[in-house]
Every structure is written in structure tokens, then in C-alpha cells.
User: What shape does this take?
Amino acid sequence: MRATTLRTEQYIVEEEPYYRPVGDEIELFSAAYKNLIPVLLKGPTGSGKTRFMQYMAWRHKRPLITVSCHDDLTASDLVGRYLVKGGETIWVDGPLARAVKSGGFCYLDEIVEARKDTTVVIHPLADDRRILPIEKRGEVLKAPPEFLLALSYNPGYQSVLKDLKQSTRQRFLALEFGYPSRGLETEIIMHESGVGKDIADRLVSFGEKTRNLKDRGLAEGSSTRLLIHAAQLIASGIALSEACRVAISSPLTDDAEMSAALSEIASSIF
Amino acid sequence: MCAAANRQIEKLRENLEANLRLDFMEDDEVKTVFDGIASFDHTLRQKILALCFSLSHASSAFVVSSLARIRKARNVLSLRDTEKWLTNAFDLLDAKGIGPYIKFIADADDEEKLRRFQSPAGLRLHSVLSRIEAFIQGISGMGLRVAPGRTAHTDTEVIYLPAAINLYSSRKENAFVYKLMSVHQWSRIVCKSLMPETDVIRSFVRKQKNHPDIDSIFRAFPEREAAQDLYAIFESIRAERFLTEELPGLMRDAATLRKRMFDERPSIDTLSPLSAAVEVFFQYYLVGRIKGKNPGWWDAAIKKIELLRQEEGPAASFALIAWICEKTRLKGEKYEPCDLGFIGNIRPDKVSSLIRARHAEKKKSYEGMINKLLTVPEIESRKRPEGAKSLQERELRPEEKYLLIKGRIIELDSELREIIDERQGIPGGILVKGSDLGSGSPVTLADLAEEEEAPSTRTGGIPYDEWDFRRSGYRKQWCNLYEHDVHPGQEPFVDMTIARYGPYVRLLRNKFELLKREPRILRRQKDGDDIDIDASVEAFSDRLAGLQPDEDLFIRLDRQERNIAVLFLLDMSGSTKGWVSEAEKESLVLMSEALEALGDRYAIYGFSGMTRTKCDYYRVKGFDEIYSEAVKSRIAGISPKDYTRMGPAIRHSISVLQSVDARTRLFVILSDGKPEDWDAYKGEYAIEDTRKALIEARERGIHPFCVTIDKEARSYLPHMYGESNYTLIDDVRKLPDRITEIYRRLTT
Assistant: This one.
């Protein structure tokens, strides 16, 4: 078993990722792509934003370059920098520059985590100029029409320090991701984990009930991802209650009372 | 200590023995007494010994008979309860003498009487209340609350559960019973058992009053209590399908409990006919069979019950009760209430009073709106900006609806139109009330005029615009706001709160200090503790490439610089009176403690007022003020005042916040519900103005966040505050705990 090493821009999604559209997001995305409009994916964690990006990259056969943003991410981490190699300096492109050059999809995940001074480097790329200035080299990269910039963020974080600037927001087309409908979510869980309809149904019902507790003790309800995790555990022979506890209740809360209440709900459903 | 106790016991033994022998007891009899005492639990012995010694002064016979009774009591009661019972007996002997004592102790022959000393062992509701509440809120998706009651029942807003459950010995199993109870009460709400459709009610109530409800139906049954219990059983049967679909696990686990309950039920044959008629159905509900002889009508009844399972509404249950009443011809018989265990009881009276309370509230709001209709145009004309047309002069648009009141044409706003559509007209009583208040013209108008005159005595107010959504524009300088200090309170509220929260305050301070000290590595600094390798490599390579190298080559460990200014705006309206106001004040104390530890700049203001010309803005603590005794006494002095005109208070807060220099300006509003003033500032108008004011705040780079304590009104909150810019606290008691957490989340 060996891990394969690929250059960033060579990462092409080969197999069709499983993605079930909730609404008309595929058409909207494709239209935005055609019209060179960058895309902002909004939605709670685990609602399928990243999977959607993979799917769209596959559909349009473009390399997908994902950057998970964090608060130490600098502009040169995105654009590129000079490195010293054997007494010589060489320029190394950052992921954003690579994406522009290769005409790929650049996906900046959790963009609000990045510092605001970092976020602004994408501004010239995200409007009709579609350029990436590389100051150190005195160059400007002009993005080909194949290039697409996408951001994701979770508007549910109520931190005033993690808000997207208006000047950033207003460059994007925003697609909202929510939890899928009951039937769809059941189908997704069945597909992703291989559990039967009955189990998937009940997991969805449990998920809904945890979402009822949002703002009533839980910061957020269970995402589809968590439900899939639980379903996968169940499919591997882990007992239902245990699977729900480790895959859903415990990740959702540290509060002992709330966690106990979630276990009670789980045991009522299964 | 142990030795001393032993000596004491030894001495008691000796004295008792001496007394017994004085009463001519033989050796073997004395031995029996001491063996008897020794047979009790260790912890009881000394007390029994002391009691026997006291009794032995009177007669050795009392000692013997008492020991026998204590044994009986011990057989029935737990150790701790026996001790309680014994103490009671001893106290009686000391206080009232041997007569009452003998009488009391003789009661031990009656197990029922003994059981009164049984403390409600098992599980107490308050120890699991928050968990059960979270459970049922999660299951239901409704903001249902849980509170202790005599039996399990609900008024559709609160689920009442018994204060303790001791059906089982283990905590887990008893907690299961609570779950089962709460879920059954929830099914009453979902299956519309408590609020049947109007046509169902009308078909069962003969005398049609104004607003018949479920209580009116039960009033029609001669044996009301029995009918209610039957209804609880039938509705549980009907709800079974729903519950099994929703919560298959719970219902499966319930089977064991049902069987166990069935085993403990009495035989039908031992009951009075009326009680038996209810009992058969309960037993049938539990396990599908009954103990004792089938009543003659039983086979027909079973068919009807089975049909219930497919029913969508409760009509069939009422019909079945009526059928049973007819079949059994039971009237005026004694009904001994049946203990229905986890399915609980039906309390139509409570549901009815809830409906009535809601109705009264609605009526009040109609009245307010009708008054608004009658008064608004007049106020408008008073200070109409030049060029603007009054409502009468405005062109009437055909698509809007209008109402003709007292010769004036009045435009209806959407909220009112909805109500009028729903009620097919303005409720007569209200209109009469509105116009009867004065002769000719409504008195309310005069009242309002008086209010309007009042401001002439108050000068120096700060004028603020108000948003009128109907005209999509501002009413210029519409409100006058006056800033005052809160009148200092006398009681040491702050100290009391700190004492009350004791260790929690310390914890809170620690938590917030941590927030402050959270170290952070600053890269690319001009100077610092260490070399920034990344920057150095870059500079080096830049130099080799012939570029100007960067000079910021150091890293520095720094405390994250917080540059936050926060203003807390407190709703001081009359509706916060009581719990809400107390909780708000406690929250302020905790928040101040936390912020003092953290070092964020903060200010506290309150607002209230009455009408647009008297908007009061109370200072508790300004940004430049320190958390002094004066501030503390002002916190203590916060008290509910008048109304909630949010707009001007928000706008003034914006200007206060803008005067502070900070990178992040946070604006936290604590409120208990909708904005509302005495005059026309209500409903949609008030919500839209508040929303507009909050948008203004955002436009000026201020982050508003609203913490609202409101049980019912989830619907308008996202619109007014903006999605994810508010949090809802459904239980005011949790506010002080939650507020600091919210602040922490907001600023990290």
C-alpha cells in the first residue's frame, strides 16, 4: 500500500463522486462557471459543500485545488514565494497561482478562518479583471476562462471576528447548502454506508431531532456527515446505540446532560 | 468518639436491664428483648435501646410490644424511613406521653399507614429535569417545558410530570418512565387530543357558548372524571401508531413496563362497576387482555377500540366514551380514580384556561390595533412635514384595503388585515369598546393628546428618526430621547449575586483571563524573540534573486491583542418585571466580572419609555467609567419601567459606540420580546423599525447581537435581528449562565 504523490494541479477527480442535488445548485454553478462568476458556498458543516466541489470538478473535468484556510495563512502561502535550493533561488507558485495557471478550480475552504488581509488577495481574481498580481515577480497572471474560484463558509458561526467582509462577499454568487430533505438524506446515507432503509430512516429521524435542539443547548444539529459516520459504523457491526454515541452525540456536545439527553433520544428511536 | 458511643450504649443496656428486672422479668425474657434489639440494623440499635429504656420506666410490656411494632415497620420501610418513623414515635413519647405514643405505634399494624413514611424514593424529577426537557424538545421540535405536577399531564405548553418516580429500584429505569410519560404527553399535543378541531367540539357540545373547547365536551359527561380517564386511554391507543413510527425503540422497551404494570393491576371483579369500566380498557391497552370476567358489552367494545387505531382525530374517542356511558348506564356511581401510570391524565381545565389566556392576549392586541387605527392619523397630522399628505388626503389605492371608522378612511396594515380576514370583520366587542370610551370621539385620542403635550416640560432631548415601512422612509426627528443615570439601588445586589454564584464567578474570571492570555505567535516582526525561518529564507532568496529583501524577520510571542468595545443594552420595559429583570441584572453582574478580568471595554445602558416623545435611555456604566461602587449600585437600581421602543435606543447606542475607538464594536441587546410602545409602535411597524435600526448599526461597522428571552415568538426573530445574529433563551433562569458563554463565542 503506497500513498500516491501528485502535484497540486494534477489532482483531477477521476471517478464520479456521489452527489445528490438538493435543488438546482448544479445548474446554477455551471451557469456561474460559464459566465466567469466566482462562487460562494454557504452552509452548515457537513452539508455537502466540499463534496459538491468535487462533483463539479469531476463534471467539468478540471483539477481541484483545495486550500483549507486557517488564521496563519499568509498571502504568499496562496500566491507563491521564492525558495532557496542549492544556492539558487527558485520561485514556487502557491496553490492559487497554480490553479490560475492550470485553469483549475481553486476551492478555499472555511474562508472566514483566514485573516482579512489574506482574503483580499483574491479580490482582483474574483471580479471581472480575473487577474492575480504577483508582486514579488512583478507579474500579473491572467486567469483563463477555465479557472474558477470558490469559497466556502459557515454562516452559523456567531463570532463577530469571523465574518466575511462585504467587499469580499459582493464578488460572489452564493449557493446555500442546507440539510437535505428526509427522503434524500435517507438515500444519501444508504448509498454512503450501505445500511438498509430502515436504519437510514431512523438515523435521519435522529438527525432531525438533534437539529431541533439547535439553540436549545446545541450549537448546531447533526450534519449529514455525522449521520453517515454512524451508519458506516453500524454497517461494520457496531451496536446502534454505541454508533450513535460515538459518531453523533459525543462529537456534537461536551455537556454531560445534553449528551445524556441525546442518548435518550437515540434509544427511543432505535 | 466510637468508644464514647459504645460506653453510652453499654450504659443504656445496663439501665434497661435493671429496669426490666425491676419489673419482674425473667432471665430468658430479658435475653429475648436484647436479642430482639440486636437483630436490628446497627444504626437503629442505639435509638431503639434508648426508646426501650424510656418505656421501661412505665412497663416492660410496652418494651416487648414496641419491639414487635418496630420489627413490622422495618419490614415495610427502608432503613432510613424506619429511622424517621422511629424518631417520630420517640418525639411523640417525649412530647405527649405514653397514650399518643401507643396509638401511633399501634398504627404499624396497618401497612398503609406505615407507607406514609415512605419517602418518595426512586428518581426525583429535578435531578433529571434538564435532561428530560432537552429530550422532549429534541423529539418534538417544540419549545415544550417540563415542570413538576401531581400526575403527568400537559396544557400543551408545559408538560407536567410527577415530582418523583419509584416504580423501579434503578435510576435508569425510573428515568425511562419519565421519558415515556413526556412522550405520551407530547403525543396528546401532536395528535390533537387536547385541542380538537372546532367541528369535532361542536358535534359533542350541546350548549354552544362563545368559544367551546375540550373542557366544554367533558362538562357534558355525567361522570366527568371517568370520562377523562377513558379519554386518556383511548387517545393513547390512537397515538400508539404514531409513537411506534416515530420512536420505535422507546415503544418496544415500553412493552416490559406495560406487562409489569398489568401484573400489578387489580382484577376487574373486585372493582365497582364504574371503575371496572375504565380498568378493563386500561388493562386491554397495556397487554391486550383483561383480568377477571368480561363485561357483556366487551366484544363490541374491542371492535370499536381496534378501529380507533386508524383514526386521524379524536372524534371517535369521544363517541366511544358516549357509547360506553350508554351501554353501562353508569350514573351517580362512585368512581375511584384509576392510576394510569405513564399515560398520565387529561386536564381539560388547564388546557381551557391556556386557550382563554391566549384568547385574552389576542383580544388585547386587537384592541391595541383598533386604537391604533383610530389614533394614528391624528398624530400624523400633528407634526406632518410640509408637503406630505395626511392619510385622508393621500390617494387611495384600489389594491389596499380600507376601513371606514367615524367618517375617516383608514388604511389597514397587513397584520390587521389578516386578523380582520380571519375573523371576517372587526370583532364587535372591540369596536364598541373603542368607540364607547368617549362620547363622539374616542377617549384614547384625548389621552394621547395629553401624552403628546407632556414633552413641552421636558427639553434637551436628542431627536432621532424613525423608520416607517409603510412609506419606506424615515419620519424625521420623530422620537426624542433623554439620557439619564439609573437611580442607584440600595441593596447590595452585586455582592449578593457574587455570593450566590460563588465558585462560578471565580471560574468565569479564570475562563476569561485565559481568553486574554491566549498566546499567539506574530510572524514577520521587525523585532522579536526568535528568528522567523520562513521569512529569513524568503529574504535570503529574495536577496539572491536580486530583489529587496524583507526586513521583518522575527517572530514574537504575543498576547492576542483584543480591541473590542461592547455595549450592553438592557430592555427595562414593564414586561421584564420579576424573573426577567432579576436574571438580566444577574447577567450584568457576571458579565462585568468577566469583562473586568478580560479587559475588554464595555458599557451598560438600559432603555424604556412611553411614546415617541419620551424615550428614556438609562446609563448604568459608560465606556470611560470604571466598575465602581456607583456602577454597582446602579446595577442594583435597575428596575422595570414602561414600554419597549427599541428603535431610538438602538440608534442612540450606535452613536455611543461610534464615539469609542475600537477595531471591533459589539452591541449586545438583552430583551424579552417584541418591541412595543404605548402608542402605535407595535407589531409590524415596530419590528420593521427595529430591523432598520439594526441595519443602520451594521452599516456603521457595529456588530449587533440580540439575546432574547421569549418563549413563543420565534417567527419574527430571524427577520428582525437577521439570521444568526441572535440567540434565544427559552428559560430565563439560564440567562446568567448563558450570557457569558455567548459573549465568549462572539468574540473568539
